[in-house]
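Dear colleague,

Thank you for sharing your sequence with our group. We've completed the structure prediction you requested, and as agreed, I am returning the results in plain text so they can be pasted directly into your records. Please verify that the sequence below matches your submission; if there's any discrepancy, let me know and we will rerun it promptly.
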Amino acid sequence: MITVLVVDDQPLVRQAVRDILTDSGGVHVVGEASNGREAVRAAAALAPDVVLMDIRMPELDGISATEQICAGPAGDATRVLVLTTFEEDEYVVAALRAGASGFIGKGAEPEDIVRAVHTVHLGESLLSSAATRALIQRFVRRQSPQESAWEDEGLDRLTEREREVFLLVAGGLTNQEIAVELVISAHTAKTHVNRIMAKVYARDRAHLVILAYESGLVTARP
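Please find the predicted structure tokens below.
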């Protein structure tokens, strides 16, 4: 059973998300919060597996709340999934830098929201639809590698194979897709990804994707 904390300043949105997750089975909504400060307190007290986080909220926005949650006592076990709208998409990359593991639109189909929670909980993949990759490319490409806030020293420690896997992760491929591409087992692909994350100090695959673009290892296409 995946435990989830739902954070949004609109009661109707919180209720709708709660209903979607509860009806899906396998997910238990352990709490709700209407602003960032409540979210930080609730995450510390409840230690949910996943926090569904709105961005624009009173008192403390979702980006700041995400940063505090990921840096807090529950940060190692809790994954943050950002709920966003197209009007807010400029904040998505900032949320990923703050520690969010992925994002999904508020207008997504119920089954997509449920799938997103499971995906982020497993840590297997950034939500890797074409729209997700396009969104990351759209905003990260505005920066030059010199403007990156990431530490990129770990890139020098990657083996040739790890660098190859890194590029595939940056393209949004899952472990299974990487295995097919490189003709290796899914387990071997997962091992490579875990080693890469350790070497470059990335929290999860979402951070690997951002690092790949911000470091200049991958160049976003116009």
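Summary note from our side: The chain has ten helices and five strands.

Kind regards,
the structure core
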